[in-house]
């Protein structure tokens, strides 16, 4: 897909988080709430993360060089991986530390109503950002579930923003829960409990993102549907008997490498072989536009089976 949709979601999250971070920090200075401090650091981390995602999009557009002949498309995976690490260290680790610290040394809140107002406004802004991410993701999600989209998407920014925004929304609810109970009961321990809940939430989200971004960074192949379409198009050619074996790998979110050995009908002239390969490449790109690099090795069908399904390992 084009990076336009993910860029729109990133910018919406960037502006929302920047404003929220300032308001939360002001709220912390007024109330002394550990939940507000944890959420302030969380929003600062999210704002920085969106900047990193935009940087990754920009650097991934660099032209290929002799040292990097396949280009820099994986820059987007690299910066998304850094985002996941930052979410874990600056978000989760800090919130857990602050929560345990305030649990051992609880301090009463001052002007908690200020924190409540700020959190309610922040929930509204974060809802707007989350809605934008959902709208842009639906354009490319297809029929898979949201969890399936996060697991299968080869475009890293949208799953990152989706999970970040979801974490931010739930984090705000947890902060509101902690501040609210601390105000109602007069016991500041509840503020610490809300902070710990935020830390655990961000830790879970960060671990999911780290696992997914690591998988993309080291190289993932085409999805099952894409692989099925590629094989079907290759084998639909008049001169192609079957696909002997095939390997695919995403070099970036919008650039798929396809390497396959195909069995051609015996007795073809060299010119016919070249035309068959050219036609096969065009046919594959018509159904899987991301397949920008296609390398086909012609061979003879020495096995004689035309119905065997190629697999990737």
UniProtKB/TrEMBL annotation:
<dbReference type="InterPro" id="IPR036837">
    <property type="entry name" value="Cation_efflux_CTD_sf"/>
</dbReference>
<dbReference type="Pfam" id="PF01545">
    <property type="entry name" value="Cation_efflux"/>
</dbReference>
<feature type="transmembrane region" description="Helical">
    <location>
        <begin position="193"/>
        <end position="211"/>
    </location>
</feature>
<keyword id="KW-0813">Transport</keyword>
<feature type="transmembrane region" description="Helical">
    <location>
        <begin position="77"/>
        <end position="97"/>
    </location>
</feature>
<dbReference type="InterPro" id="IPR058533">
    <property type="entry name" value="Cation_efflux_TM"/>
</dbReference>
<keyword id="KW-0472">Membrane</keyword>
<feature type="domain" description="Cation efflux protein transmembrane">
    <location>
        <begin position="10"/>
        <end position="217"/>
    </location>
</feature>
<dbReference type="GO" id="GO:0016020">
    <property type="term" value="C:membrane"/>
</dbReference>
<feature type="transmembrane region" description="Helical">
    <location>
        <begin position="9"/>
        <end position="30"/>
    </location>
</feature>
<protein>
    <submittedName>
        <fullName>Cation diffusion facilitator family transporter</fullName>
    </submittedName>
</protein>
<feature type="transmembrane region" description="Helical">
    <location>
        <begin position="160"/>
        <end position="181"/>
    </location>
</feature>
<dbReference type="InterPro" id="IPR002524">
    <property type="entry name" value="Cation_efflux"/>
</dbReference>
<feature type="transmembrane region" description="Helical">
    <location>
        <begin position="109"/>
        <end position="130"/>
    </location>
</feature>
<dbReference type="InterPro" id="IPR027469">
    <property type="entry name" value="Cation_efflux_TMD_sf"/>
</dbReference>
<keyword id="KW-0812">Transmembrane</keyword>
<dbReference type="GO" id="GO:0006829">
    <property type="term" value="P:zinc ion transport"/>
</dbReference>
<dbReference type="InterPro" id="IPR040177">
    <property type="entry name" value="SLC30A9"/>
</dbReference>
<dbReference type="GO" id="GO:0008324">
    <property type="term" value="F:monoatomic cation transmembrane transporter activity"/>
</dbReference>
<keyword id="KW-1133">Transmembrane helix</keyword>
